[in-house]
Amino acid sequence: xxxxxxxSIDGTKKGAVALPSAFNESVRPELILRAVNAExxxxxxxxxxxxxxxxDTTAKYYGAMNSYRTxxxxxxxxxxxxxxxxxxxxxxxxxxxxxxxxRAHPHVIEKIMIxxxxxxxxxxxxxxxxxxxxxxxxxxxxxxxNDIESVSKxxxxxxxxxxxxxxxxxxxIKKNKRKGLRRSSTSRRYTKALLLVVSKEAIAIKAARxxxxxxxxxxxxxxxxxxxxxxRPGRAVIWxxxxxxxxxxxxxxLEIGDKNGR
Length: 262
Description:
There is one protein chain. This protein has about 260 residues and is an alpha/beta fold. The protein has two domains: about 5-45 and about 115-250, Ribosomal Protein L4, Chain: A; about 45-110, no CATH class. It contains six helices and ten strands, in the order E-E-H-E-E-H-E-H-E-E-E-H-E-H-E-H. It has a six-stranded mixed sheet. The chain is elongated. The model is unreliable at about 175-180, about 185-190 and about 260 (pLDDT under 50).
């Protein structure tokens, strides 16, 4: 089994760790996109409308020839009109094109919006997204010693990200004394640029999530969307040594729609 170097938070090599089998998975963008769409479909909420919306009216359609209140030969459109006193025809109601009429194409609550995906296929998609996170220069992931999980200051986290050569991922907003925060032309491209994965819920997650473009989560909370936002694989990821050791077992327990909200 291949190994990858473990970097300490001061930038020196600390040792090596076995590379999880997930990194040997082939990158399949179409499978990753399907998993992301399946996750996003779980966030949709069914919508429905009152069945008699726009229909609670006295309006009635008089279409028979020579019938009472027919409207024919009176210079007015033959549409469902309100029944008023003394045989007067009121405003057009009921039809979608009328004021206060019913909706043309109302939502159907019976519509199936959730896109299903079996757990084996979903786990394969997550493994594929993991394999796409390796560095193009070295062909290996960035693995840092577990000391990174105890980093509590955002400033210190920014220094570590810069030391790992990922400063360009968090440079989307620049400071301008007169105009305050100024959005650069590349900031939108790096909204979901970097992910920090730790072995468990740690204080480093709070330190990292305050940085624009950086997300952080425990390895058990990984999802296709966190590894490939929007279905686009290849996100830069910093792994803690403990997260790498638990990665394969965490993927084996993944199931779409589980308690983690996927």
